[in-house]
Amino acid sequence: MPTPAGKQKLPKEVMEAHQRERVLNAAIEVFAKRGYPGTTIDHLVDAAKIGVGNFYALFGGKEACFIACYERVVTETRVQIEAAIPAEGDWALKAREALRALLEVLEAEPLRARLALVEVQTAGPKALAAYEGTLESVIPLLAAGRKESPYAKELPQRLEEAIAGGLAWFLQQRIVVGELGSASERLPEAIEIVIEPFVGSKVAAKLAK
Amino acid sequence: MASAPSSLEQRRQIGAAILELVSARGYAATSEDDIAAEAGVQRAGFDRLFAGKEDCFLQFYDEFTADFNRATFGAYEGEGTWRQRLRAAAWAAANWMADHPREVRYGTIEMLAVGEAAQPRREATLKRCVQMIDDGRLELDDPDSVSRSVAEGALGAIAETLMKNLSRSAPAQAEELVPELLYLAVRPYVGHDSALEELSIGRPAREP
């Protein structure tokens, strides 16, 4: 006899995805609070209320779990930033709105900020490679600024790479000493670091107002 | 019978051992026993000299950093304009890093794994580096027209570029990197046109 539709069990994949979701949310908090080196599998399974066997079935280990957390934070942040970029306007304006959205996420989600900018550096070579990959993914977005730059072709070849790293490092240092501050305080500084090198100080000062 | 090595000699051996182990397998995967074994000293000898792994790591971090600081800030204290001194410091730092790749990894990536106790030490060196760049404000008619965060961003750009370069299989040469990073550091203070000069100034001759 077929089971009535309403009582059907959820498919295995749906259950797993749901469980994974729950564990990731708990794990992000644990990693951010304890630091990667100070986090054990016990901490993770306790916080996520999941069995050790299930945990390993889902992630395979602490490092893989961390990387899944990192990727989730980055993906969700990226979605929020993309939603904030206006369809119309020049590069500098779009870049400012992207920076504002980034800073607002970091301010609203200090644990995620810590995970994605600080803890990622201590979580081993794979995590570090993922972090470098994130910085690299920003390079083409910055390079678009060259089209609006009066300095265009004279700019150093590695400018974008350096700027992406510079901003990440600047924010990371603030988080480490515990004073990231508000998005509105950081925005003019982020504009100086990211946008000014392309458009010059006058345009940057206008954008920062 | 040969006498046991002096504490000073043991300490030196432990320094070489922790540098080797931490740069090869990472801070987290290195234990007190590993360090003692690699150094060829008794565990009791290690315990007499150090409170534990973290204490040992930090003591040698301080030594490596002091050596880096002497080279870099020593060059900055020399004669010349701000830009000339900053350039001298940049090349001194680049030369030191090229000569000490394991110490660089130890003091940067691995230092992050140590946690809270490492933080104030890191800050001290970074503050001095930021200060060298931020001194560029004194070149301006209105020193308050550029904020200190610009120097922090420039140092961050330098630090991240160097770190990334370290992890590359085919790292870029200092000859390529240093002029571009100097451009970035002086640009906020001297403007784009003047900063471009950095790109055509090569490596100064190294002292023998």
Care to describe what's here?
The complex is a heterodimer of chains A (209) and B (208). Chain A is 71% helix and 0% strand. The mean pLDDT of chain A is 90. Chain A is elongated and about 60 Å long. With 209 residues, chain A is an all-alpha fold. Chain A has a domain at 67-208: Tetracycline Repressor, domain 2. With 208 residues, chain B is mainly α. Chains A and B meet through α7, α8 and α9 of A and α8, α9 and α10 of B.
Summary, kept brief:
Chain A has 209 residues and is mostly helical. Chain A has helices spanning 12-34, 41-48, 52-59, 62-84, 91-108, 110-117, 125-143, 159-176, 183-194, 196-199, 201-208.
List the helices and strands and how they pair.
The complex is a heterodimer of chains A (209) and B (208).
Chain A: H1 12-34, H2 41-48, H3 52-59, H4 62-84, H5 91-108, H6 110-117, H7 125-143, H8 159-176, H9 183-194, H10 196-199, H11 201-208
Helix pairs in contact in A: 1-2, 1-4, 1-6, 4-5, 4-7, 5-6, 5-9, 6-8, 7-8, 9-11
Chain B: H1 7-25, H2 32-39, H3 43-49, H4 53-76, H5 82-99, H6 101-107, H7 109-112, H8 119-134, H9 148-166, H10 174-190, H11 192-195
Helix pairs in contact in B: 1-2, 1-6, 4-5, 4-8, 5-10, 8-9, 9-10
